[in-house]
Amino acid sequence: MDLPAPELHALLSRVVDTAVARHESLPTARAVPAAFPSRDAVPGVLPDEGVGAEQSLQEVYDEILPFLSNSAGPRFFGLITGGTTPAAMCADFLTTIYDQNTILHSPGDSIAASVEDRAVEMLADLFKLPQDEFTGVLTTGATASNILGLACGRQYAGRVHFGVDVAEDGMEGCGAFEVISNLPHASVVKAMGLVGIGRRRLRSCDLSVDSIETALRSVPPDVAPIVVVSSGEVNTGRLQPSLPEVSALCKKYRAWLHLDGAFGLFARCSPKYDHFTDGVELADSITTDLHKWLNVPYDSAVFFTRHERILRECFTTTAAYLAPPDHAYSTSLAPTHPMNRGIESSRRFRALPVYMTLRAYGRAGYAALVERTCAFAKHVGEWIAAQDELELLYAVDLCIVLFRGKGGRREGAEGNKALVSAINGGGALYVTGTVWDGVPAIRLAVVNYRTTDAEFDTVVKGLKEAALTLA
Predict the structure, then answer these.
(1) 285 and 237: one domain?
(2) Which residue of 119, 157, 385, 457 could cross-link 351, Cys pair, CB 3.0 to 4.6 Å?
(3) If you average pLDDT over residues 81-105, what whole number do you get?
(4) How far is it, in rounded angstroms, from Cα 308 to Cα 300?
(5) Is residue 470 part of a domain?
(6) How far, in Å, CA of 200 to CA of 210, rounded?
(7) Does residue 358 belong to any structural domain of this protein?
């Protein structure tokens, strides 16, 4: 399996050349390939004798790379997709080269876990969270982070409402748990199933404080509430207002407050937008994706909580071949191992791209990124509002433009699907369809650091031409 240095150098040189060429070509490349082969065209047979690294790499170049999206490019607006900064790209190469398992703080072994601690501290600083009140851990994404948040909420609720240590003793002796939420992301509902709360135990409310209090007040005595609020709803970008009042209600009703800030938390990076997130620091737990607005490679997110003890109760792992559990250390300053703050034990060194990009661009760089991408989204939204063929469905607050077709064959579910197909088929940009308030719609989300005013004319031309094909 090993390769002589000259052969390895040749393979890696080709990959590096590809990285540079792709970085240069992204601004002019199609957002998605013009055509795709069938799934069966991808070789999926395990050979008896391997073809070797050189041949395998050539197969990837021939049969896979031409059919990947340009999701790191400036006009890929589907889902909520960031790019990869040059600093993060370099760090991710090094992450693979050094191949660290960020599982433990192991003196004499590696400082990888300490790098993660520093990265999380810098993120807390970026998001204006008091470092003396919050601890955190990097995760694979908002789904994993929301699992952590609901697991901690379940542990807290089990203790204060039922006197049960759920992590140790299970849920016998507990009543039911209920999640009260407005605009919950699908990953929150998924997490409810995974931590044993149950996907059907969701009580919906609207964004108002009165609605949240009504929901809390209606929870039966034998049910423990957990409140989940959104800082950035996926269709509109709406953020939960009045968080100090919501936090006060949660304290009154002894409810854990989890904030899903998958992308909206980044509003705190900018003095122009941070008012949208007033009171975020009062939540019991917070999540945000880093592979969105931070622009680091997939997969990367962070989970924060002000209750480290509860987090450790949920996720501490012990085994003879691992270091002793944290509480057995002789000094109160002993660090918490990453494996005791999250789901995984073995963990990729995903902290290095986060650390390097934060050091490279700093607070000012990310404030400028948030302001530039939000201004671009607002500009596109204003243009859409002035068109006869398109309708803006919600005023642009942050980075998401929500719209639909108007007139001709653009309306209704089939018209919406046809318009999405026409936009994406043109190749200039990529968007995704959705449903908002029962209406088929289209989302255009702007969080890539490479999206600048230079892309505006190309984007609106692509939208206009697609709409006109469905007259």
Answers:
(1) yes
(2) 119
(3) 95
(4) 21
(5) yes
(6) 23
(7) no
Distance of CA 408 to the CA centre of its chain: 37
Give the pair of three-digit tokens for residue 328. 């057995």
Q: Is residue 92 part of a domain?
A: no
Pair (379, 251) in one structural domain: no
CATH code (residue 380): 3.90.1150.170
Strand partners, 106: 110
- What share of the chain in percent tops pLDDT 70? 97
Helix boundaries (H) for 253-326: 308-315
Q: 21 pLDDT band (50/70/90 cuts)?
A: very high
What pTM does this model have? Answer: 0.94
Give the residue ranges of DSSP H helices in 253-400. 308-315, 351-385
Domain with 297 in it: 100-348
* Count of domains observed in the chain: 2
Q: Say how far residue 121 (Cα) sits from the centre of its chain.
A: 18
Query: Could you tell me if residue 386 is inside a domain?
Result: yes
b vs e for 273-312, b when ≥16 Cβ sit within 10 Å of the residue's Cβ? bbebbebbbbbbbbbbbbbbbbbbbbbbbbbbbbbbebbb
Confidence tier at 331 by pLDDT (50, 70, 90): very low
> Cβ atoms within 10 A of the Cβ of 393, count?
20
pLDDT band (50, 70, 90) for residue 330: very low
